[in-house]
From TrEMBL:
Annotated organism of origin: Thermanaerothrix daxensis
Protein name per UniProt: Aminotransferase
Keywords: Aminotransferase, Pyridoxal phosphate, Transferase
EC number, UniProt record: 2.6.1.-
Every Aminotransferase class I/classII large domain range: 41-392
InterPro entries linked: Aminotransferase_I/II_large, AspAT/PAT-like, NHTrfase_class1_PyrdxlP-BS, PyrdxlP-dep_Trfase, PyrdxlP-dep_Trfase_major, PyrdxlP-dep_Trfase_small
Matches recorded under SUPFAM superfamilies: PLP-dependent transferases
Bilayer-spanning residue ranges: none
Length: 399
């Protein structure tokens, strides 16, 4: 376990007009690699964290129609009521959890804003948030920017990268306010089991904590596995925030639509922050998202099947080459253990990029639990993955 004070050191002297918090925030380890890759020819990127599919055509059409018909104004702060109603029905149908569209749902600018609202509305300076890692790079940063203290708890490959309730309980202090989890997980592809999540629920009750559950990959889960929606667990709707969005499930990253759901007394706080920062999420994108919810089930299915085909290729090949690789149960990332080569993850990724022009992301960018691994996104064409694998094999043979 390690607190993140080392990741976000405090500036000691005034060398900038930026706030200390911002000045001491390191840029995301993902972007740095993209910047290097952008200067090279012939790079195959397994670094990208977004679907390679285009948004389904009927969803695009709905957005265009919205603009043409003059829907170019603000919506209500919480979002178009019809979208909130459709989302409530959708969550009820999939997970049996019911949110009141009037008071318990906010449509946000991507899952990213939902995360920002949760951190800003919940945290006082010094409040600790326990974060199982590896995790999406924004979790620690958002907590830190809101004045909180991220406390990282590594998940282990030998444990299927599942949440570790014992380690979490050991990290709880009187300053702990929340546990922030993200499953299906970026970058490991892990899907937390119901048993473990029930233990997290028990801890939340015992220690009076809020659970923030980022479920943005909820529909990208492979056959034989099941996503458990945290607030649907007994007693948890009242002490959790559900964060989600349209970016991944519906290939809508550029539309910037996400959502936050939770009990009214918390959502009032999130809504205040949202009102004063964003006003309302983009109107045409909300209308497009409504169409995605109404008709795009089969598009999601088609994308999951294609991700699955790529997943089977990349996981079996990486394992065959001698890089132990956990089989992802959801999302679209493989997370091979590269420390077996004797290189650390940064060096491995740097040399692979320089020598073979394949971009992957060093696992340590995702927190302490990611050290020794790299993230390979398979949200890219099958043929490109095949070529990237050939290059990785050549690289490994040379080592
Ligand atoms: N949560 C996770 C786990 C993610 O991987 C991402 C995007 N990479 C987001 C949230 C934010 O997505 P967006 O803002 O595009 O909805």
């Amino acid at each position: 376990m390690s607190s993140t004070s080392s990741t976000f050191p405090t500036a000691s002297t005034r060398t900038t007009y930026l706030s200390q918090r911002v000045a001491s925030l390191k840029p995301s380890g993902i972007r740095r690699f993209f910047d290097i890759a952008a200067t090279m020819k012939d790079v195959i990127s397994l670094g990208i964290g977004e679907p390679d599919f285009d948004t389904p055509p009927s969803v695009i059409e709905a957005g265009i129609q919205a603009l043409r018909s003059g829907q170019t104004h603000y919506t209500s702060n919480a979002g178009i009521l019809e979208l909130r109603q459709a989302l409530a029905a959708h969550l009820e149908r999939l997970y049996g959890v019911s949110y009141d569209p009037q008071t318990e749902i906010i449509i946000t600018v991507g899952g990213s804003e939902a995360l920002y609202l949760a951190a800003t509305a919940l945290l006082d300076p010094g409040d600790e948030v326990i974060i199982p890692t590896p995790c999406f790079v924004s979790y620690q940063a958002q907590v830190y920017l809101a004045g909180g203290v991220p406390i990282e708890i590594p998940c282990r490959m030998e444990d299927n990268f599942d949440v570790n309730p014992q380690a979490i309980e050991a990290a709880i202090t009187p300053r702990t306010k929340a546990i922030l989890i993200g499953f299906p997980n970026n970058p490991t592809g892990a899907v937390a089991t119901r048993e473990r999540l029930l233990e997290i629920a028990r801890l939340a009750e015992k220690h009076d904590l809020i659970v923030i559950s980022d479920e943005i990959y909820d529909r990208l889960v492979y056959a034989g596995h099941q996503h458990v929606c945290f607030p649907s667990l007994p007693g948890m709707k009242g002490r959790s925030l559900l964060l989600g969005g349209f970016s991944k499930d519906y290939a809508m990253t550029g539309w910037r639509i996400g959502y936050a759901c939770g009990p009214q007394h918390l959502m009032q706080g999130l809504l205040r922050v949202h009102q004063y920062t964003v006003m309302s999420a983009p109107t045409m994108s909300q209308i497009a998202a409504l169409t995605a919810l109404y008709d795009r089930d089969e598009a999601v299915q088609m994308m999951v099947e294609e991700y699955d085909r790529r997943r089977r290729l990349i996981v079996s090949e990486l394992n065959r080459m001698g890089l132990p690789t956990f089989e992802p149960k959801g999302a679209f990332y493989a997370f091979p253990k590269v420390s077996v080569t004797g290189l650390d993850d940064e060096t491995f990724a740097q040399r692979l990029l320089q020598e073979e022009h394949v971009a992957v992301v060093p696992g340590s960018a995702f927190g302490a639990g990611g050290e020794g691994f790299v993230r390979c996104s398979y949200a890219t064409a099958y043929e490109k993955i095949e070529e990237a694998l050939r290059r990785i094999e050549r690289f490994l043979k040379r080592l």
